[in-house]
Amino acid sequence: MKIALVDSGLGLLAAAAAVRRQRPDAALLLSGDPEGMPWGPRDPQDITARALACARAAARHRPDALIVACNTASVHALDTIRADLEPGIPVIGTVPAIKPAAAAGAPFAIWATPATTGSPYQRRLIAEFAAGATVTEVPCHGLADAVERADARAVDAAVAAAAELTPPHTTALVLGCTHYELVTTPIRERLAPLGPLPLYGSADAVAAQALRRIGAAPAPDAPATGSLLVLAGGREASLPAAALRYPQTRSLTGGANQVGASPDRASAIRSI
């Protein structure tokens, strides 16, 4: 099977790694937009056009399913991409994990980009899945950009600023941007005074939904034969150097027939 993932940059790594964990034999296709990155500050029409272009580039390789591995693109472009590609290719969007975080009924926080924080989209999700719960929306200024650059100092500074805005009564944290799932270690370290907070990301749920949509079951013990193809602006490319700073990339670079990631490079990956 072949699963495609779309994002402007590195935010798709977490979902790609989740697919790889659940199906090590799946071929992965990562379709990004480095020239238009980041999508967050752009207007909805531009975001939609760019996300659709990435999706169409991936579709030319005939994937069995396509994951829009970006919260911003899922908000603005998901319906357009589905109208363009379905029913031929199932399209799966990314939604912040507000519902499972709210299930305990305890106070929780949502870290998201400034554009998403307080948006009608996020407020609708809170009203639908966390009505009556104490929810704090925290804007994470500069965090996604710092993750994209794999700039550890900038990540630490952005995480520290977001932690200052997170109330002491917080009992769980929703990661409302796919980029944030790449830096859970510094987030946990900074929030350690609040206790061992569970972090709710979307990657595993999105990967599972993609498999369900194509009638496939998880098979984590399958042979690790899955290949990797990277597209940048629709053209075959290598994984950007910053990607090699994240542990999620290890699982993407161990298979066969890959573009842009040799075993020697994979062995040198260092966690941010």
UniProtKB/TrEMBL annotation:
Keywords, alphabetical: Isomerase
Protein name: Glutamate racemase
Alphabetical list of InterPro entries matching this protein: Asp/Glu/hydantoin_racemase (IPR015942), Asp/Glu_race (IPR001920), Asp/Glu_racemase_AS_1 (IPR018187)
SUPFAM superfamilies: Aspartate/glutamate racemase (SSF53681)
Organism: Streptomyces carpaticus
Highest taxon in the source lineage: Bacteria
Isomerase in keyword set: yes
Biological classification of the source: Bacteria, Bacillati, Actinomycetota, Actinomycetes, Kitasatosporales
Pfam families xref list: Asp_Glu_race (PF01177)
Entry keyword annotation includes Transmembrane helix: no
Gene3D superfamilies listed in its UniProt record: 3.40.50.1860
